[in-house]
Amino acid sequence: MSRSSSSDVPTYDLDDDLHGPQASIDPPRNFTVSTEERIRALSIGAPAYAVRKREIEDQERAWLKALRDMRRTLETKSASAERIERALAEKAASFDYTRQNARIAAHNRWYPIEANLRMDPRTGGYLVFGRPWEEEPPCSAERLLAILQMIR
């Protein structure tokens, strides 16, 4: 970068990829992350609540995909709506929700603390981006089937 003699406006050599506003591989942002903070993030990894939430979402996505695929298969075989609904309900009931609901309970228990959520002084409840935080609902066959209906 150099300054033109006629003004204080910086000029860039657009043919030189090593200088100018695009020289950094970091995206532009309005804050800085120190070297110590970067090393800490790399060595510790993702926060526990983020890993837990991802596991919850991945399992739910896998179950929904299995149900959606089953619905599509039955629809291609021209199955009746009642048969499809019954088969989906049976499949959803066959899933073991024990481990998933344990993850959700752990997430609901620890997320506010791990994410350092603020508290609403009026209600004593946790806030996420200024709005009340709500616990993740437990996973169930009924919940999966309701979500499946929404993603038709």
* Sheet with the most strands, sense and barrel status: 3 strands, antiparallel
> What is the count of DSSP helices, taking H or I runs of 4+ residues?
5
Label the overall shape.
elongated
Strand content: 5-15%
Q: In terms of structural class, how would the helical and strand content be classed?
A: mainly alpha
Number of strands: 5
Low-confidence stretches at least 5 residues in length (pLDDT < 50)? 1-22
Rg value: 25 Å
> If you average the pLDDT, what whole number results?
83
Strand order across the biggest sheet? Answer: 3-4-5
Cα(first) to Cα(last) distance is: 54 Å
Can you write the helix and strand succession as a string? EEHHHHEEEH
User: In oligomeric terms, what are we looking at?
Assistant: single chain
Helix percentage range: 40-55%
Write the layout of secondary structure elements.
Elements: E1 2-3, E2 10-11, H1 35-44, H2 48-76, H3 81-94, H4 98-114, E3 118-119, E4 126-128, E5 131-132, H5 141-150
Antiparallel strand pairs: 1-2, 3-4, 4-5
Helix pairs in contact: 2-3, 2-4, 2-5, 3-5
